[in-house]
């Protein structure tokens, strides 16, 4: 990872995978992606450089996930202007229009609960730059639209191992920052703030599960959950909680924000499942943003080979 000069290829010019790959080659030619270790020293600079909706700081992560999809990337513009982030309003364009009020630096992440090494970390200490990698994953919203997003991040498992959970830790709970000044939507009782989510411990430890700090090789734009958000690609997008300030190890299955809001519609697991509708949305097909025709939705969002075993013996129509 490396902090380069502001790119001469603007994010807005990046429209497809080909352009992105050309850009990655540019980074490679510049010796950037090989500079993982040098980046450790530069991380605080990068983080402070990432203010604003269109961050200029670049994250070059050398590691490529073996689970990366080769499907066409969703254009940067769509990834960053068609969002769900109710802390800024319920409209798809609200986050991009209003997210400048979020100040992602300085930022503290607290790790607590049933673990031997709890702690409160400045983001700079929390992120291990050498662990950053490129993860090109499908992203499927319960509203039946989908994207393919090139994330920059690291496995959540890294954080869990560092925290040394005790035997009582059966689930991991995540909490978004509560701050109505930064998040104007929190002034309205649209949801029970702060937004929370949860995973079972084996889901949280799965190598597909990420903490993302960037996308398209750049620091995460505010509207996508700066400075740190979860990515769980085999589950509906609402599990991927944004702007995380707390990661807690708990014994009981947590009640998540959406379970509390609409218990009949949202379960704890929320695995992408074309056979179980989520009224009012059928989950059989999805609209890949940018494509004309709908496409069939895949069980576990196409990650069945990696995750189906986690749910062996469970009835996923009941445990949705
Ligand atoms: N996290 C917080 N804190 N607040 C939210 O409203 N929306 C969720 C999820 N994470 C949400 C959140 C939903 S419904 C989806 S589909 C994804 O974020 C959208 O992520 P994206 O905007 O990066 O595509």
Secondary-structure map:
Blueprint: H1 17-29, H2 36-48, E1 63-64, H3 76-81, H4 94-98, E2 108-113, E3 119-122, H5 123-126, E4 133-140, E5 145-155, H6 156-163, E6 171-176, E7 196-200, H7 201-205, E8 210-215, E9 218-219, E10 229-231, E11 244-250, H8 257-261, E12 285-288, E13 295-296, H9 304-307
Parallel strand pairs: 1-4, 2-11, 5-12
Antiparallel strand pairs: 2-3, 4-5, 5-8, 6-7, 6-11, 8-9, 8-10, 12-13
Bound molecules: ligand MTE.
Outline the structure in words:
- It is a single chain.
- The chain is α+β, with helices and mostly antiparallel strands.
- The protein has a single domain, classed as Sulfite Oxidase, Chain A, domain 2, CATH 3.90.420.10.
- It is built from 9 helices and 13 strands.
- The chain has helices spanning 17-29, 36-48, 76-81, 94-98, 123-126, 156-163, 201-205, 257-261, 304-307; strands at residues 63-64, 108-113, 119-122, 133-140, 145-155, 171-176, 196-200, 210-215, 218-219, 229-231, 244-250, 285-288, 295-296.
- The strands form 2 sheets. Strands 1, 4, 5, 8, 9, 10, 12 and 13 form an 8-stranded mixed beta sheet that branches. It has a 5-stranded mixed beta sheet with strand order 3-2-11-6-7.
- A hairpin with a 4-residue loop joins strand 4 (133-140) and strand 5 (145-155).
- The protein is globular and about 45 Å long.
- The relative contact order is 0.16.
- Residues 1-17, 22-42 and 48-55 have low confidence and may be disordered.
- The protein binds ligand MTE.
- Ligand MTE binds at residues 83-87, 139, 141, 176, 195, 224, 237-238, 240-243.
């Amino acid at each position: 990872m490396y902090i380069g000069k502001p790119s001469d290829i603007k994010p807005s010019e990046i429209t497809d995978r080909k352009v992105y790959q050309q850009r990655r080659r540019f980074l490679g030619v510049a010796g950037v992606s090989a500079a993982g270790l040098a980046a450790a020293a530069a991380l605080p600079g990068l983080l402070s450089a990432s203010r604003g909706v269109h961050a200029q700081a670049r994250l070059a992560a050398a590691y490529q996930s073996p689970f990366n999809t080769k499907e066409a990337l969703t254009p940067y513009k769509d990834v960053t202007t068609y969002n769900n982030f109710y802390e800024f309003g319920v409209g798809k364009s609200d986050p991009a229009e209003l997210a400048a009020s979020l100040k992602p630096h300085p930022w503290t992440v607290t790790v607590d609960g049933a673990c031997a090494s709890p702690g409160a970390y400045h983001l700079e200490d929390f992120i291990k730059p050498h662990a950053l990698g490129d993860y090109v994953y499908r992203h499927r919203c319960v509203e039946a639209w989908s994207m393919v997003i090139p994330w920059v991040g690291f496995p959540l498992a890294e954080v869990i191992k560092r925290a040394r959970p005790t035997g009582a830790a059966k689930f991991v709970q995540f909490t978004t920052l509560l701050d109505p000044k930064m998040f104007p939507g929190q002034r309205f009782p649209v949801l029970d703030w702060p937004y929370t989510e949860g995973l079972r411990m084996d889901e949280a430890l799965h190598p597909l599960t990420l903490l993302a700090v960037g996308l398209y090789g750049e620091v995460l734009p505010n509207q996508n959950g700066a400075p740190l958000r979860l990515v769980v690609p085999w589950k509906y997008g609402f599990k991927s909680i944004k702007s995380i300030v707390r990661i807690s190890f708990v014994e009981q299955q947590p009640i998540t924000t959406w379970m509390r809001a609409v218990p009949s519609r949202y379960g704890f697991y929320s695995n992408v499942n074309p056979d179980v509708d989520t009224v009012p949305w059928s989950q059989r097909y999805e609209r890949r943003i940018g494509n004309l025709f709908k496409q069939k939705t895949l069980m576990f969002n196409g990650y069945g080979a990696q995750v189906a075993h986690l749910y062996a013996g469970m009835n996923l129509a009941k445990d949705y």
